Every structure is written in C-alpha cells, then in structure tokens.
Amino acid sequence: TQATTVRVRSTSEPSTTERPVVTQATTVRARSTSEPTALETRDVWAETKFLTLDRRSEMTNMNRFCLAHAVILAERMNRTLVAPSVRGGLLSDPSTTSLDALDFWDLRRAAPNVVFVSMKTFLQHVPLKNEQGHWLNAHEEWPMPAEREDALAQRLKSISAKVIILREDPSRNMCWMFKEQNSMHDEGRKVYANLRVLSKPFKNYASHMLFLPGFEFLQSALVVQWRSMTNQLMYTLQGWNPKEQLNANTDSRHHQDCAKSIAEGVEKIKAEVGNRSVVLFSDIHTGCEQGGKVCGYREFEGLWQKHLALDADRKAAQAYLEGHQHWSSGEHPFHEGYESDGGVEGLLIEYLSGLAFALLTCTKGDCGHCARGDSGFSRSIVAVRMQSETTKCMTWDSWTSPRLPAGCPPRHQHER
Asked: How many Cα neighbours within 13 Å face the side chain of 134?
C-alpha cells in the first residue's frame, strides 16, 4: 500500500468474528464483535464439532469442486467448516503459516448457512497431529464422488469425533471426479459457482493492480487466455492412455500450429476492435526465472524433460507469440512475493481477464484440439464476463471461428 507495493492482507488472523459461538444447544453461528462473548460462560471450542479438508493434488478451480462438496456436507451435519489451508494453488495440509480459503474466496457469501473459521484460529484451539500420513486426533473420511452429501451425512451421523477430515485417494476421489455427471447435482453446481467470488481483501489487491505502472494496458488490451494443457497433452506427458496421446508424427508441431491458429484469430478480432495491444495468459510458460521469483505454469514441470521434442515445440510456440508486434506475456509482471505462487497467479489471471477490455479464449469444440475447451478456469472467466453487457460483447470464445455471443451487434473500428 506504499508507492506500488501491494500485498494480500491475511484474513486468517485470530478475530472474535471468526470464533464459533454456541447460542443454543445445537445452534452455532459467528458472533459480531459488538456482542458480549460467550467464552466468559462456556468453552465453545470444546463443544463445537468441525469438518475440514487436507491436501489435494489438483489446482485451484478443481479444488473448488471438493470445497463445494465439503460446504454442503458441513451444512447437512451442522458442523463448523474449517477453511482449508492453501499454498501454491493447492489445498494443503492444515498449517498455521499458510493462508487459507477465507483469504482467497468469499466463503460466507457463497454459503450463508454454514459457519466458517480460519485454519490458523482453529489450530490455536484444536491442534491436529499427523503421523505417518494419518491424522491421529480426527476421524479420517475418503468421500466417494458418487455418494451424495445427504447420504454421507447420514452415514457419518454416529461419528462422535470432534474433527472430521475429508481426505483424497488419487485413484478414487480426486476433485475433478466430483464434477462428473454421476456426482454433480444442482446444489453442488450453485455452490461451486458461488465459490468463484473472491474475498474482499484479495479483490482489492487484484483491482489495485490495474492502476500500477505496467498494468494500465489491461484496461484497453485484448487478453488472450490459452489453456493449452489438453487431455491429450497431459496423457502424453504422463505416459497414460496411449490411444489418447498426441501422435509423435502428426503432432510434432502441435503447439506451433496452435499458436498460429490463435494469432490468426487475433487478427480477425483486431479487424473489428482496432490494432490494440495483446496480452497472453497461457500455461505454455513453464519454469522459473530471476532466481525463482518469476514462474510460469508448473503443474507438469518435471515431465517436459522426458519429451524433448514436445518441449522444444512448446518453447518455439511461446517465442512465436511473444515475437508478434504489440504482444506481451502476462505471466511475468506479477508483484514480487506472489509471482512464484501458482494459486495467486491463477486467481489474478481469472479476475483480471474478467475485467479486461476484450477477451479471446477457447470454450468451444472447434478449437478443442489446442485448448481444454471444458476448462473450468476458462469457463469461469467467460461466465463472469457474461454478467455485464460491456464485457459480454467484447468476449470471443473461439479463435478458430471468432464470433460474439448472441445478441451482441457486430463491432467496427469506427465505433472505437
């Protein structure tokens, strides 16, 4: 807040507004600081029961499916939900030194009937201990995606443990599985959608960046958001599902061909909106620079060296796009102290892309060979832009056949 220094103010600091207070035998709610504290008459921490999550292996948007499931389950079981710790874009093991979900998302607005407490505050009153991969003083539960929250709450109602920790088995209940047809339902979709709302401190931080030196361009630029990690590419890097991997012969220039297709789409849009600066947000940037202070997408970072030809193709595509006049990478300018955190970077990209003057992304099948068209990240950005006529009618969801959403009039340079 001095000069151009901006930081996320932690909301995990102990606060009387976060202490769960028992007002009746079975009613738990957050008490205002103006009300007398119930701690003077009873130990509410001893009486309250909690639910939380530990580490998940997927990044921010997929994490929200697990978080939405936990929110609904906490309401069904009348348990206070401890906001899980977040580090590097992942839900992480409970920690007093990490930020938690309350620092990033407006959980209380997303689920007004659920009581939340920050992880830092919780651990000060209810320490958790992990030995050899198991939480000793809590009931561990591995929820299955196809088991609805009502059924799970009924099955767990006899559990008397003070803390229930929802855990992950990568072979059975990763977060992406909770969005599949056999597990997702209307209430889950609603909570998931509500969870995209950022916390007020983080939103203030992100909004302020628009006015920092070097960021003003976002207010008039065309943002290109390219989620290049398709299933085919992921399977190729991981060595999974051979029949669904990229073909080494026909796809030897996969990234470069896709980059060319994107550039052609950008030129079509420029013909309508004018020769504006182009900002590229993409996961084709990998690795770190400047001693680890500036980093790109790192989820599969260790696998690229096993596929040197594919890695060279990726780097050539990155150079091709960044070599265009008036194009710049949006991956690098984030403020010192947060550049290396993939979660903060992802949330900033999502938020700033929603506010940008114009956006080109891929959520359609015709560009799906080059981008993850069903990406929750990309779809979340588009959904935010659809809420305003101004941003809606400056949003293109395919570079192969760029078209404005229904109801938007054609744009011409002279209108600008």
From this structure: 6
| 84-102 exposure pattern, b = at least 16 Cβ within 10 A, e = fewer | bbbbbbbbbbbbeebbbbb
Both tokens assigned to 80: 């206070």
State the Cα–Cα distance between residues 77 and 403, nearest whole angstrom: 46
Cα–Cα distance for residue pair 227/410, rounded to 1 Å: 26
- Model's pTM, two decimal places? 0.72
Q: Which residue bears the tokens 């609603």? A: 190
- CA angle 116/117/120 to nearest 5° reads 150
Give percent of the chain above pLDDT 90.
50
Please name the residues in contact with 2: beta carbons below 8 A apart, sequence gap of 6 or more. none
The predicted model gives 349-359 an average pLDDT of 89
What span, in angstroms and rounded, lies between the C-alpha atoms of 219 and 306? 40
- Mean of pLDDT values over 267-284: 88
The helix (run of H) or strand (run of E) holding residue 131 is strand 130-131
